[in-house]
Design a protein that fits this description.
This protein is mainly alpha-helical. Helix content is 50%, strand content 5%.
């Protein structure tokens, strides 16, 4: 076989493994048997019990990428054991990439180790329970760049919003592509002045 065809097989098999391991984050939070009442995308969700439960649901889907990633990894190893194969090597690289991204912390900040860290869940739950008296009628929402009061704009938590597993307004295809590329991470930096439609 020519070198070009081997390179094409390698790249295609890497993409297939990468897509397989990203699927849980795109699909699982959006096909729940018991959907939670959350405001539609791209509006800012209120910090309440439903949001906390949804984040825990998305967190499970995020970590489900590891067992999903083992499928192409094992297939790739079996293919390479039987005979040298660019497809097997591509499956190993693609799945290992995603598995490593799950195991290696994204940031040194305790809230940003991973997009859905338990530290973040605990902090959001604390904000939900302990209402901060920033104005007469405080209403905590999670905007793109921070958790803030929608009435007075006081910032309660300087942490950008990751994907929350809601049905996206930018369509199934573009929404799924965006989630896969960002891997659930926030689209903006914390308290960024850049405006975007969402996650």
């Amino acid at each position: 076989m020519s070198l070009l065809s081997e390179i094409i097989r390698l790249v295609v098999s890497m993409l297939v493994a990468w897509l397989i391991t990203r699927l849980p984050l795109v699909v699982l939070p959006r096909i729940s048997i018991r959907p939670l009442e959350l405001i539609d995308h791209p509006n800012d969700p209120e910090i309440n019990e439903n949001l906390i439960l949804q984040i825990l649901r998305v967190r499970r889907a995020y970590w489900a990428s590891i067992p999903f990633g083992l499928i192409p990894l094992i297939l790739g190893i079996l293919m390479i054991i039987q005979s040298p194969s660019s497809v097997g090597f591509g499956l190993i690289i693609g799945s290992s990439w995603v598995i490593l991204s799950r195991l290696v912390p994204f940031d040194l900040d305790h809230l940003s180790y991973f997009p859905y860290s338990m530290n973040l869940v605990h902090e959001l739950n604390r904000i939900r329970i302990e209402k901060y008296p920033c104005c007469a009628i405080p209403k905590q929402v999670w905007s793109l760049d921070a958790v803030k009061c929608s009435e007075c704009g006081h910032i309660l938590l300087d942490h950008a919003r990751p994907d929350l597993g809601r049905k996206r307004s930018d369509g199934v295809l573009f929404g799924a592509l965006r989630i896969m590329i960002l891997d659930g991470h926030a689209f903006t930096e914390p308290n960024s002045d850049i405006f975007s439609e969402e996650e």
